[in-house]
Structure to design on (132 residues):
């Protein structure tokens, strides 16, 4: 079963590009979640790396679009992104060093972050970004 499913009601931002990115992000998180149950570090590591790379790409795309639109809450939004990226990079580093494992708690943390950030933070850029 999937950890997280995209629906327009819960996650739609009215910016098609970012909705597509969010769907892709959810797919990568679901893949990481599925890999955890295999217990194979190589599989988990690949899924983790793929997810983190796309998170960075997606955040940059949002920030670039907010910047172009002179979106007022850009700095605040960027701070939330930065915090998650730092958490992810620490996790990746610790995992690679064998000092931490990726567990269902990790994937639940990421799911909860997305379930908070997209409806409460991303959605707010909808009117500004979809007007451009
Ligand atoms: Fe987003
Ligand atoms: Fe965002």
């Amino acid at each position: 079963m999937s950890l997280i499913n995209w629906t327009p009601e819960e996650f739609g931002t009215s910016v098609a590009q970012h909705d597509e990115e969010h769907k892709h992000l959810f797919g990568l998180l679901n893949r990481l979640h599925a890999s955890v149950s295999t217990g194979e570090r190589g599989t988990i590591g690949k899924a983790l790396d793929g997810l983190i790379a796309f998170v960075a790409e997606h955040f940059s795309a949002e920030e670039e679009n907010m910047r172009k639109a002179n979106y007022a809450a850009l700095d605040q939004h960027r701070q939330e992104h930065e915090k998650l990226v730092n958490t992810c990079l620490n996790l990746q580093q610790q995992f690679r060093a064998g000092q931490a494992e990726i567990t269902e708690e990790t994937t639940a943390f990421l799911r909860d972050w997305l379930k908070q950030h997209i409806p409460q933070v991303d959605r707010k850029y909808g009117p500004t970004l979809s007007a451009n």
